[in-house]
Amino acid sequence: MADPNSNRMAERRRSVAEALNGLFDPRTIAVVGASRTRGKLGQAVLALLKSNGYRGRIIPVNPSGGEIEGLPAARRLEDIEGPIDVVVLATPVGIALDALETCTRLDVKVVVGVTSGFSEAGEEGHENEMRLRRIMKDAPFRLIGPNCEGVVRPASDLQLTFSPMFNGLRPGPVAMISQSGALAGLMALLLGERGVGINAIVSSGNETDLTAADLLDYLGNDPQTRVVLCYVEELRDGRRFAEAAQRLTKAGKHVVAVKGGRSRAGSRAVQSHTGAMAGDDRVISAVFRETGVIRARESVAAVDAVTALAAGRRPAGNRVGIISVTGGLGVEMTDLAESAGFEVPVLNEATQTALARYVPFYGSVSNPVDLTGVVLANPTYVGRCLEAVAADPGVDIAIAIITFVPDQQFIEALAEAFDSTGKPVLIVWTGSARSNASGDALRERAVPVYDSPARAASGLAALAAMRGEVA
Amino acid sequence: MTQRETLENWQRAGRKVVHEADAKDLLQRIGIPVPKRDPAEGRCVAKLCHDDYPHKSDHGLVRLGLSPQEAKQAAAEMAQRIAGGTELIEQMEEGSVAEWIIGCKRDDTFGPIVLAGPGGILVELIDAAEIRLAPTEPQTAEAMVNSGPGARLLAGLRGAEPADKGALADLISRISVFFAENADLISEIEINPVIVRADGKGLVAADALIVLSPKSDEQENFT
After folding, report:
1. Average pLDDT over all residues of chain B
2. Are A1 and A78 in contact (CB under 8 A)?
3. R_g of chain A computed on alpha carbons
4. How many A-B residue pairs are in contact by the CB < 8 A criterion?
5. Which architecture, in CATH terms, is A16-147?
6. Below-50 pLDDT ranges, chain A
7. Most buried residue, A194, A198, A247, B203, by CB count within 10 Å?
8. How far is B65 from chain A (nearest CA, A)?
9. Which domains does chain B have, with CATH numbers?
10. What is the ipTM metric for this complex?
11. Rounded Cα–Cα distance for residues A144 and A131 (Å)
């Protein structure tokens, strides 16, 4: 039994906010299943938590005691003194359930269940699932997962996961909720590569207790969050999810969602046209549109959308100005923009005159602007041209297309041009791998950078949705 | 008896699909216009309504363009063919400029929703329905009749008279509220077609169907 003065159970069930406040800014984390054996989940969780610089109290829990990763281990959860904000379960399922039961008698805010072997395991997981539900019925704490990849919050140096996909993220405006841990990892990696900052990532797993709707409401209302990215397969409380999304989008935040998994069409007899016409997938599209959620077809397109929205710049209209070091990519970008409902209008005369100082006679100063390869020898030109196009009163969104770039000045000139305007600017940089320049200057500013016109078009579409065109 | 009590009685009686005549009685009570019954003169339609035959025309249970006398004979003849049906003789509606479908159902993910789009035979041709969460606010219902390809039909294509969009929006809003309030008892309501007349001249529900939910003790236990 726990010492009644130091580590007793809470008197009532914690609210979602209490539990998640504890989760994202914890003072004490207990890792059940912490291990010295490489390859074990608990070993990976503990090692990543330490190596990512978490500064609170970490308590490995392992029946053999001693020291693990240089930290004194508790043999049992009951031996830990004082309240525990977060308990991570990273053991085989039987031990995890025993630990979960113990948590009901302790002062725990939230449990993160990395462990698998519940409803997702079908028949074989059935008994575990039943026991899990029995424990959670009266549990005073809240549960993330089980069968999830964990929780990440860069601002708290918090890395509660066994996956290295989330390493090295910078703090920022994007919150992510994913029912698939692997997709969370993929999307985090892509966002990190582009320098898009992360407020929090939750892999929500089976959502036995806390659901995507709870997390959307909590993370969306965090003042640090500008965009919430969701990957969902099944929305158990879809109505609450939709209502939470609507409140957020009305308040000027963005929700980008990927709905995975095809509907089980025709599983019931259809007696009316309504039943046939309002199939699952159509209803999801309709409800997302009604509530202002931007629906992305798949995870990479969702990241493209989030990349554009995270920069926090709103376009006043749908007119796009394009500059390119090559004619072909400018034409492709124009085609994609126009077919997505944007205009690529002729630039005004003053802009054309300004551009003519830098663009040779065999280029083009209308729109798309063809700078030609001449600019490769004059790094500052590309910046000046981007500034001129962004300053054109007939342009709402500016796009700069570059291929390989020979030196760093080039990237810095683009970054300066980004600072010169408040309009959304997208960069298409097809040759970053072949360039002698680093994108740090762009990443630090969260400039949306894409590797192809098509990916940039996904970003453009998200900017359009932001103006309510898709709603 | 309240509308809810009527629904409960139907459910208690074991009905799953509620036929047109009874469905229209209920719709009329929530303020949705339905055709005049048993008119003394003018052109009539004769139908035989039965819970087991929701698609009446497939079974020869609809006859159009009859005199009141002919309609009575036709309905009696149909009643002899199908036992237990309810005869329905209505005035044929004139002045249609658009036929619309309005449906409500409980979506597995989002709960009550409402759908509105081109109805009648167009249902089979184009998939242009607008879908929203139910109940809808009046301004959402207005947005539904002003969105998508259906909006162009209602506005009057190539010089056709514009339809009464206000009446249609009112119907959408009204039925979505009724459905959402009773979504534990009803799994679907469908009015198809709604005959929409020219702007200012209203509309009428030409056919309707209510699908009841199974009683709670018959529902699958998901826990």
Report:
1. 93
2. yes
3. 25
4. 79
5. 3-Layer(aba) Sandwich (3.40)
6. 1-5, 265-267, 467-471
7. B203
8. 26
9. 36-92 (no CATH), 96-214 (3.30.470.20)
10. 0.89
11. 16
